[in-house]
Amino acid sequence: MPFPVPVSLLSPSLSSPTTDTQPTPGLAGRPVFTGETANLLPNPPTKLKVPESKLKHDTTKLTTDEAPKLSTIEASKRLAAWTAVDRHVRSEHKVIGIGSGSTVPYVVERIVAQGREANRDRVFIPTGFQSKELIVKGNLLLGDVDQYPRIDVTVDGADEVDGDLNCIKGGGACHLREKVLAEAADTFIVVADYRKNSGVLGSTYKAGVPIEVAPFAYAKVLQNLHAIGSPDASLRMAQKKAGPVVSDNGNFIIDAPFPEEDMADPYTLLTKLKMFTGVVEVGLFCHMAKAAYFGNQDGSVSVRWLDGRKELLDSRATPMLPARNSLDEEKDPLDEATKGNGFGVNGLEPENHA
Ligand SMILES: O=C[C@H](O)[C@H](O)[C@H](O)COP(=O)(O)O
What residue spans carry the Low complexity bias annotation (predicted)? Predict the structure, then answer.
């Protein structure tokens, strides 16, 4: 699965570097970062010339004429990531775990935008090659979990999240390190677009449960999986390489689809799978996330908490639009629409979200 990286982290800055670290008004009220993010790379080009392929993930540096619209899905990912960072990555947090996947570049982007001062004495722990690159390219200090076995907060993506915040992870083969960093963190936060917000695992992510195995044991583990009710379990094959996917840890990955009755009780399935000798880690994250943030198509963010609370942050409460104060007098159609559906609306202040 490809992990796109925002253009701001990969290509020369598209705006003049400044020392300003605050978002300033941009496209349609969107913030434009002209500070730390803009400073990531030297030599701003005199004339903008960015390959089309790089433009689709980040428009924060582009002028109105130059910026294409962010796709709805990318905008949803960014919305979830930025909102979660604003609420959970605080100045007192000094050891921060960075997950993997296509939503995580927006996490790093938002952390970088907190400014050089905020990030000066922080260390960032990657969950794999991709996040290591993001940390290094973001000029953030790189550490590892063997140096920092206690992490303040880890923010990560997911392939699917169920009603109890259990997750399927490992679509990018990173779930071993991700689980270590999730476990090491005081607070583990999941960020994703609306498509990952599910009832029962396996409803939307059909590839199966990712299972990392020691290479020499894969055939035996496959046999076990076929025997316990996953007849289609198979070795994940590489796309542009002959042979299997090899994880960052040198292991193979098996994808094992299970019927709904198994997926409805992921903790039981997880414990069963972990018992197979040769299994290194299973991409079922049960009872680990403190909260999950889902960016929605309409610019709102759905937040689900481990304790069962739900919030719906309407688009005025997200980082994309002006602060709620300036709009307090207006009637909010979402307030009406969501009455009685179990969602609080903009219910909690950021400082309550450690
Ligand atoms: O191994 C990969 C990770 O578990 C990712 O967090 C997960 O696959 C979600 O990735 P994406 O956000 O690209 O769908």
Answer: 1-17
Taking CA atoms only, the protein residue closest to ligand 1 atom 6 is 157
ipTM of the complex: 0.99
Please write the tens of the pLDDT for every residue from 244-287: 999 999 999 999 999 999 999 999 999 999 999 999 999 999 99
Q: Which ligand 1 atom lies nearest to the CA of residue 169?
A: 4
- To the nearest 10°, the Cα dihedral for 298, 303, 309, 310? 10
Taking only the tens place, the pLDDT of each residue in 62-75 is 333 444 567 999 99
C-beta of 174 in contact with ligand 1 (< 6 A): yes
Catalytic residue among 160, 178, 212, 311: 178
Q: CB-based burial of residue 220 (10 Å sphere; 0-12 exposed, 13-18 middle, 19+ buried)?
A: middle
Q: Determine whether 178 is an active site residue.
A: yes
The ligand 1 atom nearest the CA atom of 156: 6
- What the chain holds in terms of domains, given with CATH numbers, is 209-273 (3.30.70.260)
Q: What are phi and psi of 73, to 5 degrees?
A: -70, -45
User: What integer pLDDT is reported at residue 118 of this predicted model?
Assistant: 97
Q: Count the neighbouring beta carbons within 10 Å of the beta carbon of residue 279.
A: 20
Q: Is 210 in the pocket of ligand 1 (CB under 6 A)?
A: no
